[in-house]
Design brief:
The complex is a heterodimer of chains A (267) and B (329). Chain A is of the alpha/beta class and 267 residues long. Helices cover 25% and strands 18% of the residues of chain A. Chain A is built from eight helices and 14 strands. In chain A, strands 4-3-2-1-5-10-12-13-14 form a nine-stranded mixed β-sheet, with helices on both faces. In chain A, strands 7-6-11 form a three-stranded mixed β-sheet, with no helix packed on it. The longest helix of chain A is centred in the first third of the chain and has 12 residues, at 20-31. Chain A is globular. Chain B is an alpha/beta fold and 329 residues long. In chain B, strands 1, 2, 3, 4, 8, 9, 10, 11 and 12 form a nine-stranded mixed β-sheet that branches. A three-stranded antiparallel β-sheet of chain B has the order 5-7-6, covered by helices on one side. In chain B, helix 4 (75-83) crosses helix 11 (286-299). Classes of the chains: A alpha/beta (267), B alpha/beta (329). At the A-B interface, helix 4, strand 9 and helix 5 of A face helix 5, helix 6, helix 7, strand 7 and helix 8 of B.
Amino acid sequence: MTTERARAGHALAPVPCYTGSELLAVMSARLLKDGQTVFAGVGIPLLAAILAQKTHAPGLTILFEGGVIGPFVEAGKLPPSTNEQRCTRRANMLVSITEVLLMLQRGYVDVGFMGGAQIDRFGNLNSSFIGDPADPKIRLPGTGGGNDIASLADMIVAMKHEKRRFVEKVDFITSPGFLDGSKTRAERGLPAGGMFRVVTDLGILGFDPDSRAMTVVALHPGVSAAAIQANTGFELPVPADVPTTEVPTPQELAILRELDPAQLYTA
Amino acid sequence: MAPLSYSDLRQRTRERDRSLRNKVTTLEDAVRLVQNGDHLAVGGCTASRTPFALIWALVRAQKQDLTVSRSITSTEGDIFYASGLSRHIITSWFSQGIVWGVSKVMRAYTESKRARFEEWSHMAMGLRYRAGAMGVPFMPMRSMLGSDVLGRVSGDTGPADAAFAAAKTMECPFTGETLLLVPALNPDVAIIHVQRCDAYGNAQLDGLTFMDIDIAMAANRVILTTERVVSNEQIRRHPDQTKIGFFTVDAVVEVPFGCAPHECYGLYEPFYSHMDLYAQMTARDPEAGAAAYLERFYHEPKDWADYLSRIGMAELLDAQRRGSGIYDD
């Protein structure tokens, strides 16, 4: 599907083929800036952070909630969780989980980076319950470090753009976005951080500075305003002059495929 | 699980034998320190340094009604539910691991309300143990505020998930800011697996320490399992590496591969094929699958070596080959 989309947008240019997950990783990587400190989970967030390091952000520092600061991830040996020894090899520093989260609270982390099962108009994320939390249809694994990271850092969320995931109101707020919008986040005691961008396979989303409601920042090639709205469970404004993102470059794709040759996270 | 008063906490510490004495014992004897109904804190995190040999011994001793707490919970949480050891787990995340998807066993027990998964933020778990370790009743923190994770454990929204240990917000008396206060955890017993310790319980931890040092300090009793019991002379050569002091420790059990099928830093990685087998066995019928798994790997083995041999020599060598390469180029 993505390939078709890329073809439609770039009929005359050489056409790179890529998966939806690769698109997420590339678009997320481009949002990271050199010199930032990033809390990354395994999967797309970690791939994106490493890709950023290998392209435009060599001075980016990655943190894992397991207590790893500055990990060195080897191609083909991606860690299955942020709490296993594979994350630590040739890292700069190891601390306890509590210490690394306190560094986050102290303000040493710029960007948090994660996914979720559901997201709503104000960027609230759910990874705890599908259905009524008192009588759930599905009990999900829960927050892990997600609540702490979303409470204390600027967030980039990478997830598939589906109507059942982009809902009017999440069933349970596991990790806070802008809560009820406007200034409610600060009023409830979260003065720092907040949602920065949501990267999907259809586009890049941001939040209105006043209402804190989700808006479209850019669309991926071949995606129309109607298409992104059709895959979203709430009203998603698309500015008339919305820009189109640049497709992943062969170099970006080559780096991702070297990191994850078995396509564990990018299939 | 009402919070202990400070004088009760001190009294329990005073009553313990904190002398420098040989504490080496067997798994079977060590689990006698755990009483039905206790709050048991489990060291390690996800599939790392899980004290599985001791959990195995607790299942075999048919302990029940434990309230279990842990930083992040993996397959050992399924074992707690399925064996009846615990119907109440306090943690921040609970599943086998991201690559295996949502735990079917956890889902089966929690969705039918036969077991509780009390969810706190990861930092809240860490600070609750730290408050316990510091001998204070709570710690202030700046996350969980505004989320439904807080609503559930404070009883403000939805069903209260923590009968006694509700979190509370406060206005800071110095700055006027809103802060969250999370109550101390002082487990009755902590079980922690380490790479090496001496017979007194001076434990040296390699690599990731997770929340284990706070857990050991917070608990009223500590059982260490260790890959190797080493001499006190060896400990004294590198006292900076001693992370858990003997005075907190009540029992030491030497158990090679004591985290199998999870990992022990620098020695072995998770036994991935066995973790796949477990996921397969519990995929279709989680309860029957977990029961069959418990029978084959917990009840039938005649001892820990037999358990390891049932997991298999090839698995063990593979995990060791992957795990011991961490310092190699």
